[in-house]
Amino acid sequence: MQLLRDFPLSFKESKTFLTLVDDSDQDLFPVVYSTLAPRALISLVERNFRVETITNCQFWHRGLSDVYLIETLSKPYILRVSHHHWRTQSEIQFELDLLTFLNNHNLPVSAPLTSKAGELSIEINAPEGKRYAALFPFAPGNVPLGDLNTTQSFLFGQVVARLHQVGQHFTSLSARQPLAPEYLLEESLQVIAPCLPKSCQVGYLTEAITHIREQLKALPMETPYWGICWGDPHSGNVHFTDNNQMTLFDFDQCGYGWRAFDLGKFLQVSLQSGLSRKVRDAFLEGYQSVEPLTAIELSCLQALTQTAYIWSWAICLNTMKLHDYSRLDPFFFSHRLERLKCLRSADWQLF
User: 265 vs 60, 158, 204, 301, CA distance in Å?
Assistant: First the structure.
């Protein structure tokens, strides 16, 4: 069995890893998700990228992709390996093209490195199907300890506004799912509704989505309202240095959408994590100091925050079906419905 392109047919990594052998004469049991061996990824990176001698590779984080920390003699890198079920090659290429474009236009993003063959990603023949690895410089600094302060939040808002301005000039030959209501809301409903326990209110969720869609009809799908969106701006996806220099990363949810959706996503995550009102307001103030929002966009922020919440709920649900089905109990759904009710209330900014 050859897990990685051109990788030797057998090796022993350590006592904690299985020995891989050539079992081409045996039927392989179907796999939904595999964890790639760090030692094999070291070989993959060294063959395909111009990097210093690698001293260590550790599985760093499992999210919508698998993230590995690559350590060399001089500096660290991040290797991100896509999940077979989450993004197509074209969608991944769109994201990597966007990051390269933003980096070339002096936006502080962690942009992918180019391989020796001139590619931004490397194909991996995993047991479940094709996966794609991209190598990034490790973003200097850290996620803000205790979350953002008002100064960091203001600066963060300014950078997101610049991202939207620069993104108006981005084009890509690769396809990406637009962050439109049909995808964010209708497809999310199709994911969530069949899983809701009888005790939960399917009708309430359906009515909420219908109401949100009515509100969002006021937003034009044209410049400057519509353009490139990060899709996931929050304090967990930015590193700050001691002098508040920042690096943005994790654009896995990017696409074309309303610029105000990015503000709604920031508010959704910030409200969920308990970020203070002053810090949330500083982000909006920073954004509008660069790119003022229209009255229509401001009036839709609550609906966009709800949209971001429902979309993230569907993404979480799909992920947990694969990795942690035990948590999908009635409380998982009832808690999220109650949270949605809070976001729909007149006092939504207080929760």
Answer: 25, 16, 22, 9
* Cα–Cα dist 323/245, whole Å: 36
Rounded to two decimals, the pTM is 0.91
- Please name the residue that has the structure tokens 């990017």: 254
Give the H or E element holding residue 56.
strand 54-62
Q: Locate 91 and state its tokens.
A: 């969608």
Residue 246 is encoded by which pair of tokens?
Answer: 């920042």
> What token pair was written down for 66?
């698998």
Strand arrangement of the beta sheet that strand 54-62 belongs to:
54-62, 65-72, 76-82, 129-137, 122-126
Q: How far apart are CA 222 and CA 229, in angstroms?
A: 13
- At 350 the pLDDT is 83
> Do the Cβ atoms of 4 and 44 come closer than 8 Å?
yes
Nearest to 247 by CA among 236, 262, 256: 236
Tell me which H or E stretch contains 330.
helix 330-344
Positions of the chain with pLDDT under 50: 1-21
Query: In angstroms, rounded to a whole number, what is the distance separating the alpha carbons of residues 146 and 150?
Result: 12
